[in-house]
Amino acid sequence: MNPIDPALIKQIVEEICKRLEACNDDIPVGVSNRHIHISREDLDILYGPGYALTKLNDLKQPGQYSAKETVKIIGPKGEFDKVRILGPVRNETQLELALTDGFKLGINLEIRESGKLQGTAGIIIEGPKGSVKKGYGAIAALRHIHMPPEFAQRQGIKDKDFVDVVCEGIRKTIFSNVLVRVSDQFVLEMHVDTDEANASGLKNGDTVKIIKNRE
Amino acid sequence: MNPIDPALIKQIVEEICKRLEACNDDIPVGVSNRHIHISREDLDILYGPGYALTKLNDLKQPGQYSAKETVKIIGPKGEFDKVRILGPVRNETQLELALTDGFKLGINLEIRESGKLQGTAGIIIEGPKGSVKKGYGAIAALRHIHMPPEFAQRQGIKDKDFVDVVCEGIRKTIFSNVLVRVSDQFVLEMHVDTDEANASGLKNGDTVKIIKNRE
Fold first, then answer.
1. Helix H segments across chain B?
2. What pLDDT digit, counting tens, does each position of A74-132 carry?
3. What are A40-89's pLDDT values in tens digits?
4. Are the C-beta atoms of A141 and A112 separated by less than 8 Å?
């Protein structure tokens, strides 16, 4: 009997691992602390004309990063001193808070998809060079999954579907109405806010599974 | 044809309403803000020997009340100024916080059933007359339902069972591992903390339903 070529064994193992990985439906979780996306116009006022954000850390979604810069957020009943700006600048300023934060500030947050800001709560933002009073733009983000097309196809899911997601543990929870956004610009990741993470015991890097698709 | 006696109609309507009520499986929700149950010994130190708590409001569970008195809670990274004492005094001091609160204080909270305090996080408590450094006693409460025996019997549930509970809405959530405590001293009520309430959009007085029993 001829001995098996070790290089061939390695090749087989790697191919099997690749296939297993392709079938793996674990979805990593990213817990969003309160943060703000800022418009060019507002950044000019808060940090001075033409100010460029300084990258602190890359986020998991390509091109997105946390900036060294923070702002102060002021509500009728409370404030937060150092709310992190996420870059790059966007078309509209959008403040993402947990409902817990909203109660502390004294504002009534709606659960909204990113970018759907009409009729949302207003807020005062203070930077080192100036302050802005926004008539709207503060939301509690609708929980959602960033999903690459290959994963969506394997799961039979399409962009803007809603799915149910289960996380195990002592605070085992099934989250319904989880929005799926599919794009080849996305890395697989479910975003929840700190309330949702704490209610279910989820931490950054934990994984969840989709248990059912809804149209 | 004889006219029907209005008193009889009223009696029939009342009987039907009673039966419908008996079949109603909606469970009212009580959202627990951070609070503290205090021992006689600790109250003596914090508010002075023999101090009697002053009732502010009756809670829904018979005999339980919120007191006018509050304490300051101090952790390694933060503090809360006015944490409400719930009366009457208990055998052991027990501080109930949301995990969000724990992060602010800088303490690592375990999810625990009320009274199961061994090995839990310590905390410093300050009152107007003195302060206490507890080696343990701070928990995130395991979500649970206070249930009278008639309701439990109708649902086929017994004391210390765990059930799954669904709450509807834009943040529709199924909470698993919900502990049931059955006693004729209890009024039907599910207790969740502020993280759980905010993650699912629940407010005081909202209702949830049991969807499955587990042994």
1. 6-23, 40-47, 99-105, 149-155, 194-200
2. 999 999 999 999 999 999 999 999 999 999 999 999 999 999 999 999 999 999 999 99
3. 999 999 999 999 999 999 999 999 999 999 999 999 999 999 999 999 99
4. yes
Which residues 28-87 on chain B approach chain A with CB closer than 8 angstroms?
none
The CA distance from A126 to B134, in Å, is 39
The DSSP 8-state label assigned to residue B118 in this structure reads T
Chain A: residue whose CA lies nearest to B194:
A100
B200 and chain A in contact, CB less than 8 A: yes
**CB-based contact B176 A177, cutoff 8 Å:** no
What class has domain B143-214?
mainly beta
Show me where the domains of chain A are located.
33-141, 143-214
Chain B positions in Cβ-Cβ contact with residue A198 (cut-off 8 Å): 98-100, 195, 199
Measured between CB atoms, which of B100, B172, B175 is closest to A198?
A: B100
